[in-house]
Design a protein that fits this description.
With 182 residues, the protein is mainly alpha-helical. The chain is built from 7 helices and no strands.
Length: 182
C-alpha cells in the first residue's frame, strides 16, 4: 500500500533542492511519484540543453543533443549507483528497489533545473559547475535514503564513483558525436 503524499509536487521540488531527507523518504515510499521524478529529470535535462546555449550551441539540434546527453548521464549515474550501492557496497539493512532508487535519484536532479540560467552570457560555466556539485549533494541524500544507508560516507563513495563514470560517459559521447561549439 502506497502512503498518501503529504507534499505537493512543488513542495517536493523545493525539498529536493533543499536536500531535505524527509522529502527523499516520502518520494522513495510513494510509487505514484515515479512520473513526478521523470518530469524532474526531463526538466533538468532540458534545462541543460537550453542553458548550454551560453556556450554558443544555440541550434535546436545542439539543444536536443545536450538534452539527450544529460538524460543519458542521469540514467548511467542511476544504473551505476544501483550496482555499486546495492551490490558492491551494501550495508546489512540495504534493500535494493529499482523504483525507489529511480524516484529518489530523479528528484536529486532538481538542482539541475537551474542550469537554465546558463543562457545568460558569462553565467554558463558557473551555473553548470554549481548545479553539478549541488546535484551530487542531492544524489548523496537520495542514495542514503533509497538504499537505507546509516552511513553518509558510504553514500558519498557510491555517488562519487557513479558521478565520475556518468561524467566520463557524457564526455566520451559528446566528443564522439557532439556538435562543435564555437
Amino acid at each position: 500500500m502506497t502512503p498518501a503524499p503529504t507534499n505537493s509536487f512543488l513542495q517536493r521540488l523545493i525539498g529536493a533542492v533543499s536536500l531535505d531527507a524527509a522529502i527523499y523518504e516520502e518520494v522513495e515510499a510513494d510509487r505514484g511519484a515515479t512520473v513526478q521524478a521523470l518530469i524532474v529529470v526531463v526538466l533538468s535535462s532540458l534545462s541543460a540543453g537550453i542553458g548550454a546555449r551560453g556556450l554558443g550551441g544555440s541550434s535546436p539540434a545542439n539543444i536536443a543533443f545536450i538534452t539527450i546527453i544529460a538524460l543519458m548521464a542521469w540514467a548511467a549515474w542511476a544504473l551505476v549507483t544501483l550496482q555499486v550501492g546495492g551490490a558492491l557496497l551494501p550495508e546489512p539493512q540495504t534493500k535494493v528497489d529499482v523504483g525507489e532508487l529511480l524516484r529518489t535519484t530523479g528528484f536529486a536532479t532538481a538542482p539541475g533545473i537551474l542550469r537554465l540560467f546558463g543562457v545568460l552570457p558569462g553565467v554558463t560555466i558557473p551555473a553548470f559547475a554549481l548545479c553539478a556539485v549541488w546535484m551530487l549533494a542531492a544524489m548523496i541524500v537520495a542514495v542514503r535514503q533509497a538504499l537505507d544507508y546509516t552511513s553518509t560516507g558510504r553514500a558519498i563513495i557510491v555517488c562519487v564513483i557513479g558521478w565520475a563514470l556518468a561524467i566520463g560517459l557524457a564526455l566520451v559521447v559528446g566528443l564522439l558525436f557532439g556538435p562543435t561549439v564555437a
